[in-house]
Design goal:
It is found in: Cell projection, Cilium; Cytoplasm, Cytoskeleton. This protein has 416 residues and is of the alpha+beta class. It contains nine helices and 18 strands.
């Protein structure tokens, strides 16, 4: 066997005979020995002195020999891989040729003007025929995001110079700055490009033409998908005569307006809740109004109840508490009674103040306290097991406020 490489002019490599004719040894991984014609096939790779060669074709005599000697037909010839020398002989792509022509034409016009020639105005005829003719489209953009909304625009396409202008239609009390120009009049490119360095070559500009503006379709404006949904009568007449196309408007379903209700910030724990709320309602906070008449009438009236913890903890079974509610300001206080060998000290368990009922979300009222009631005070569950004589009498005298503690009929009849 021998291996030779065809010579290519100016390749920069020494070409010709690669391996002289001799018996080439076969790698030990393939069984050793030397290569024979049985080891050669189109589409197969062979290793010659640590270099891998792939067989991509064979001549007609070789194919006839293998068919007669071994009774098999080799596969078709494979395509030669592309390299730098073969690529140099291929014609240039059309976009590269057009770019070169544009550069050469620009240089030619510059040289003509430099030697005293006149400047050509290629769009003069277009300007004379279409001056003051403007296509008008109604568009919108659904802004995606947490605070996104639908924004409406008016798109003007100037037929005189193929420029586009977009004006934003700001609704009343929109909260946006009063600068309605969304896209200043200029050619609108399909392939926007930002030059990183001054002087760099930019790709050929692909601008939007009238045939690209169809009602019901979208266009890309700086990464925003703008939907064209309607146009005016002049634009419809233009497309009938220019493209034979009937522009059909789309009925837009406006999203329903949602009025967000303002909410006061949560209570921060400083002062009373009414006092903190008054600072949110005005710049000059006023002290919250208090029911003075109630304070004067019920200042000395206190309902005291006996309660136990209802948390099913064995250590808390024998603990007893006094739960009192003052009728003057509806403040609630809890005190623990002294129990011998209970392991808990007597005294104040919850300071006297207005407390909220977690079950209803409102302040505790006297009607929430009755024998057998279950209350959650300072995250501790209590069950009322009794009341003093004064509390029982007061509840019986006011059945409209304490319907659960109303006196039974037999007892009322006995009193009568």
């Amino acid at each position: 066997m021998m291996v030779s490489e065809p010579k290519i002019e100016n390749s920069g490599m020494t070409q010709g005979t690669f391996v002289k004719r001799h018996r080439i040894p076969r790698p030990s991984s393939l069984g050793g020995g030397v290569y024979g014609f049985e080891d050669l096939r189109v589409g197969k790779s062979i290793a010659i002195y640590s270099r891998l060669f792939r067989l991509i074709g064979a001549d007609a005599y070789t194919r006839d020999f293998y068919e007669a000697a071994m009774g098999e037909t080799m596969v078709e010839d494979q395509e030669l891989p592309m390299d730098t020398f073969r690529a140099a002989d291929l014609p240039d792509p059309e976009d590269l040729v057009s770019a070169r022509r544009a550069v050469l034409q620009e240089a030619k016009e510059y040289n003509e003007i430099a030697v005293g020639g006149c400047c050509r105005n290629e769009k003069l005829q277009q300007y004379l025929e279409n001056d003051r003719k403007v296509l008008r489209f109604h568009t919108f953009w659904d802004e995606s995001g947490k605070y996104g909304s639908r924004k409406y625009y008016t798109l003007h396409y100037y037929l005189a110079d193929d420029t586009v202008e977009m004006l934003e239609n700001l609704p009343r009390n929109s909260g946006c700055a009063p600068y309605p120009t969304f896209w200043r009049r200029s050619p609108l490119r399909k392939n926007p490009y930002i030059s990183a360095t001054p002087g760099m070559l930019e790709p050929a500009a692909l601008i939007y033409k009238p045939e690209d503006l169809i009602c019901g379709q979208t266009i890309d404006v700086m990464g925003r998908q703008i939907v064209l949904y309607d146009c005016d009568d002049f634009t419809r007449d233009f497309y009938r005569s220019f493209m034979g196309l009937e522009q059909v408007g789309t009925k837009i379903h406006h999203p329903p307006l949602t009025h967000a209700k303002l909410r006061f910030p949560p209570y921060n724990g400083f002062g009373s809740e009414e006092d903190s709320l008054s600072s949110c309602r005005g710049l000059m906070p006023k002290p919250p109004r208090r029911d003075v008449q109630k304070l004067l009438v019920d200042a000395d009236k206190v309902l005291r109840f006996e309660g136990v913890l209802a948390d099913d903890v064995e250590e808390n079974e024998n603990r007893k508490f006094v739960i009192a509610i003052c009728l003057g300001d509806d403040s609630v206080g809890v005190w623990e009674l002294k129990q011998r060998n209970s392991g808990h000290s007597e005294g104040k368990f919850a300071s006297k103040s207005r407390k909220k009922n977690p079950a209803t979300g409102t302040w505790f009222r006297p009607a929430d306290f009755f024998i057998g009631a279950s209350l959650l005070i300072n995250s501790s569950p209590f069950r009322l097991t009794g009341a003093d004589e004064k509390a029982l009498c007061y509840m019986e005298e006011h059945p409209d406020q304490f319907p659960v503690a109303d006196a039974p009929w037999p007892k009322v009849a006995a009193r009568l």
